[in-house]
Specification:
14 helices; single chain; mainly alpha; 0% strand
Amino acid sequence: MLTYLQATVIGAVQGVTELFPISSLGHSVLLAGWLGDDWAALVGSGESETETPYLAFVVALHVATAVALIGHYRRDWWAIIAGFATTLRTGRLDTVPQRLGVLLILATVPVAVAGPLLVDPLHTVFAAPVFAAVFLTLNGVVLLVGEGLRRRNEPTLAEYGRRHALRLTRTNSITTADNPPRRSDRRLAALDIADAVAIGLTQLGALLTGFSRAGLTMVGGLWRGLEHPDAAKFAFLLATPAILGAGLVEAPELAGPAAAEIRGPILAGAIVSGVSSWLAVRYLERYFQTRTLLPFAMYSLVAGMLSIARFS
């Protein structure tokens, strides 16, 4: 039975690690393994069965994180949705929000198509903590590779920005907007279709327990020439429909009999998860203005290798 203590701890871990590039699902599995049999049994039931209290709890945590992201980026989402509606009516991409909306849709397609087919088989096969430990270690390696890509791309970033800014100007994407878009939004909207799809494909790696969705999409952004603040914002915007969609698909679990006896802990965990997600995204936006993925890479490597030694 899920207790208030368990719900609060797991909610806090979920809210932070969903957005930090260190894997929320991997930490849920590893934390349960480190804390003992009661916690391991709780998390384990949610990995391999349906209609369980823990599954309903996980649904609530994901919805809470998505709501926090929507709240934080509410102005961006309002502009993107309004712009996309205009695009559907006119068939044109005249503004930065319009172009960004289409790019987010294209980037979401890979996980929307492959996710429902792969998530249950992969989570069942790789549910053991040792697999989460291995993939968390590999997550650290991927983050290091992403930083290497960033350094390799650095000499061409100025030319990339100049070229794509020119493209936006030629298509009137900047001057026709009612309000001048932020520079970061201009850079994101300068991505092309291949960039969006490539970044979207990186999300599929997060179906393996221990890989971070935010980390992989940030690495994808660095790979396609974005700088850290822009890669982080695109990752958080891109994560919102994926997290919300995964939660809403399983939303009937919240109304099912399995959740009836633990609605109090579920609500408490969801509130903690939402608040911690909101604080995390605010912190990370400031962090990536001047810093890199390297601390998260080192953490993933150390935590992953210690966990491999513990569970192998």
